Amino acid sequence: MYIVPEALIADLVSREASFEAVEQVFAAMAAKDAYNFPVVREAIGHEDALYGFKGGFDRVGGSLGLKAGGYWPHNLEKRGLINHQSTVFLFDPDTGKVHAMVGGNLLTALRTAAASSVSIKHLARADAKVMGMVGAGHQATFQLRAALEQRSFEKVIGWNYHPEMLPNIEKVANEAGVPFEAVDLPGMQEADVIISITSAFSPSLMADHVSAGTHIACMGTDTKGKQEVEAALLAKAKVFTDEVAQSISIGEAQHAVAAGLIAQSDVIEIGAVINGTHEGRTSDADITLFDGTGVGLQDLAVASKVVELAIERGVAIEVDF
Ligand code: NAD
């Protein structure tokens, strides 16, 4: 088997490669060539940690495996480690033998950023100019950096619950040569594309903060009870997701479905748009919303790419197992 440690990932995988891997696996999911296994997520009663597994099989891409890991809230303060910790395990689909073990921390950030970028590519208006960010934490910087590659954005506007964190995303905008402006939430009406990436349990972005024609990628809600945007916004939007089952149970759509504002059948897999079996946006006035819940297949797709590159460049550690 091969081992690709966390420290090697940054030099191996690019935003472009992550984007391609995620776009391809979303397409495979919609074509029923790939599926995710039920997610396990447990509060283990130790260190207040949440631990679990996300896995799946992509018959076309050939990735089989799982990401194991979770969230250890005291890591940073107690041990100087990041709080999110994960490792990806890949298996040979022909034999069941373990193929690779890959550091999953940076991969998680990259595959999540790739998901919102894929949604922008396929659902945002071609003439989008103003990029809006709700959230300015660790993951927000990755989302913004990747999003700015999808359209000719002329300005980034940002709001964050903790305003002192806004310089995190201002730095990313400026590095990409795009001016940044802090706004209040109604100021988001100026945005053509909005990414929300927060850990909130109640909505910040309301339906009347969003103008006609906007594309919104909701990326923070990945657990029951979390919520970033008003449920009424989903009722006004065409709603897309990575996986419908997750969207309506742990994603942003859980609230709109529970309130009877939309039905499960209103939520469309983005892979269908990629494959051309759903029309996606049909008018410049449509509000499109991508509910990015994060699926195991995204991790496997990007990890498979990393292993391929590590073997090619002779840096994968090979062990007899
Ligand atoms: P972080 O701790 O670095 O940042 C948290 C962000 O949420 C900050 O912007 C903070 O100001 C904001 N926030 C905190 N409380 C808030 C509140 N009450 N109202 C509004 N905003 C609030 O975390 P991160 O690494 O940036 O991750 C953000 C979220 O994204 C987490 O909830 C994480 O679970 C989720 N996530 C989702 C995926 C996916 O695939 N969908 C992948 C990775 C992370």
TrEMBL record:
UniProt GO cellular component terms: cytoplasm
InterPro entries: BhcD-like (IPR054860), NAD(P)-bd_dom_sf (IPR036291), ODC_Mu_crystall (IPR003462), ODC_N (IPR023401)
Entry superkingdom: Bacteria
Pfam families cross-referenced by the UniProt entry: OCD_Mu_crystall (PF02423)
Protein name: Ornithine cyclodeaminase family protein
Organism field: Marivita cryptomonadis
The organism's taxonomic lineage, starting at the top: Bacteria, Pseudomonadati, Pseudomonadota, Alphaproteobacteria, Rhodobacterales
